[in-house]
Amino acid sequence: MNRLEPVDPAKLAPLKVALLGCGVVGSQVARVITEQAEDLTNRIGCRLELVGIAVRNLDRDFGGLDPELFTDDAKALVSRDDLDIVIEVVGGIEPTRELVLTAIDHGASIVTANKALLAQDGEALFTAAESRGVDLYFEAAVAGAIPIVRPLRESLVGDEITTVMGIVNGTTNYILDQMTTTGADFDDALAEAQRLGYAEADPTADVEGYDAAAKAAIMATLAFHTRVRGADVYREGITSVTSNDIVLARKLGCVVKMLAVLKTDVQGAVSVRVHPALVPSSHPLASVGGAYNAIFVESRDAGRLMFMGPGAGGSPTASAVMGDLVTVARNRVRGVAGPGESVYAQRAMTPMGEVETRYLVRINVVDEPGVLAAAAAIFANHNVSVQTVDQSPAVARDGEDEEIAVLAMMTHQARESDLQAVVRELEERSFTRGTVEVLRVEGK
Amino acid sequence: MNRLEPVDPAKLAPLKVALLGCGVVGSQVARVITEQAEDLTNRIGCRLELVGIAVRNLDRDFGGLDPELFTDDAKALVSRDDLDIVIEVVGGIEPTRELVLTAIDHGASIVTANKALLAQDGEALFTAAESRGVDLYFEAAVAGAIPIVRPLRESLVGDEITTVMGIVNGTTNYILDQMTTTGADFDDALAEAQRLGYAEADPTADVEGYDAAAKAAIMATLAFHTRVRGADVYREGITSVTSNDIVLARKLGCVVKMLAVLKTDVQGAVSVRVHPALVPSSHPLASVGGAYNAIFVESRDAGRLMFMGPGAGGSPTASAVMGDLVTVARNRVRGVAGPGESVYAQRAMTPMGEVETRYLVRINVVDEPGVLAAAAAIFANHNVSVQTVDQSPAVARDGEDEEIAVLAMMTHQARESDLQAVVRELEERSFTRGTVEVLRVEGK
């Protein structure tokens, strides 16, 4: 260990920073780097020099930034030999992966917000960064402004995390919140979200759960010290959630939330899933509204921690990028890199069929004697124990001469494969009308 | 930057770790180091070797740990030249400060939980650590298991924090929670807390707010990049909170909480205060029960973040210590230290008299015509605008022939010095019986 003398930041050569992407997040990052230069220099111990901003199309608004910085040749930018840090906020898999690997190969540290890329190809990127001796930081990839990556990666690294559960996608939380508070159906709530900028023109990544699954994979890899990829995550979006589900949830004292649920079992195997779920109204997650995110972490020594904050948006995401930027810059000044990944545990992944949780099963049935008993017998035959039953008349449709009832059964803890067997058998029965709807129940 | 090859942890010499203190926290730390050795080795990249545990008295239960490790000569232990890390969980100012400085001087990195020492003498310790090139980490000093130091120190370091507000002392939160839920008065609630181990035999540090003030000073120093000492913090404990206050708070739709409030103003000056306060029942802080802590952080880009979790206790505090231990150990393995302090900002401290907030003022007055008008006039004369007034008869006492009324006035935002002037004038008036009680109101 050396005795260190304080160095005047002005005497050091500035750190050269390249920015890939200048959209909602990138433009805010560029603004902060420019406008907060003095504070940043003081905090880092060295100046930052933004040397290039790669964008798709140079025919654009430069937003007050120096037009000379902009280039549409991202490959040339990351191939420079003099970059200290590359900030990647353009997203997507290709050509972004190639650009990041090129930057690493040329000795630049990386700050990224790219959950999809990390969930799919994190291993290759971390390996490249570690062997090249550069940093790869990614707080902005999960839960926007909420510091969750750093706590999982560094604060809880002396502890044993057993459960992570949370709301990590602002778009779906906003949509479900709208459906809950206004009674809107999914399509109308999605349209409203798009109108307000909470959902993309193509909302697939959010509403089909790909975004949440990528974030869940990243968090699971950190929390359980074992490689989990996006493809390993059981994924179910919210496109099948109806206003009937919302009404039924309220009747049962719950709300519908899009959750990421990450658990280890006593043998140390890991299950990771994202799907809509009923959550009791009294649960702290139930009150997380709009585009906010919230994450519960349970561990051996710390007990139960909760983190909450804005999960998306230009400024919140930029906050996370800037925190990583300062950290990585401080490392560059001292000629070091932070610790790399810790993925030694090689835990087994629990197949979804083996996962145990609680379920709400809703079916339309002909309202005749014996139907309830028959339905209940199916549950019993598959070892699924029912906790509560709610039966009420369905809204009659024109031309229908049958009396239809809606049966809602909430189960105790049950195994997924058993529950799916119940569903298949119910759907085969002559008393069932339409399909069987299932929502998992968490936090109860 | 070097290209790094992975190193087999077993081939490296273990890192030598000394533990100062083996109480509730220290014993859990020692247990985790011993029982989780394999996981820790994998996460650090090197083994840890606990080489000594300094305690006050060797005539004690060794709790399953190797008795050979124990010593009552802490000074000799920290004077060794071969220590990598010293964990300080003994607390207090002296001789702890001397021990920590000695350890630093001999080249050991420090992990501490000592909020009192850091709030009083942080500057000297950080300066010593930085010039010696060793780490000084202190997550366990603030808010138990909740990662708050690391987010303030590293995650939000590219952002501009404007407000930090929270419950950071589990003892006082437990006592006030008891008073609220059971109607107990302060003395009985304190006795119950002591019985259950939530309060010390000598509870002064907690109930008089010294503990909260030290934590507030540490958080303010991190959040605002400026030196704030414990003595700079306006401090008021909870010993004057009565069950009348609790009842009145409920009547006004609030609860009484012991808060730390840290703010910057538009000129960048800083105010830091700890005191009991009314908080609206709908505010998230209002539902933080028992010995839990919760901290709100508001910043320019991130918006509003909340962190919540166990604020005290052996295992929660040990979790924070272990996170720092692994981080510091990883640094030692790579021959580096983390960034030191960032306290360049030299902000002015706002005197308490200039602080603005809302107030609940409660006085007993003779129930006679003109008293309310006279009281209201005093507020007006000192520029304190009243939002709501509640007047009700006081409970009559034996032998009293006067009719006494309780006047409760909630103000709009007002300046502390103006409010104190109002209080002094009210106390001088002949219509006032007893003293004037004041509770600040936050989050409304």
From TrEMBL, chains A, B:
GO molecular function: homoserine dehydrogenase activity; NADP binding
Binding-site list for NADPH: K115
Physiological role: Catalyzes the conversion of L-aspartate-beta-semialdehyde (L-Asa) to L-homoserine (L-Hse), the third step in the biosynthesis of threonine and methionine from aspartate.
Name under which the protein is recorded: Homoserine dehydrogenase
Catalyzed chemical reaction(s): L-homoserine + NADP(+) = L-aspartate 4-semialdehyde + NADPH + H(+); L-homoserine + NAD(+) = L-aspartate 4-semialdehyde + NADH + H(+)
Domain of life: Bacteria
Species of the source: Luteococcus japonicus
Primary enzyme class: oxidoreductase
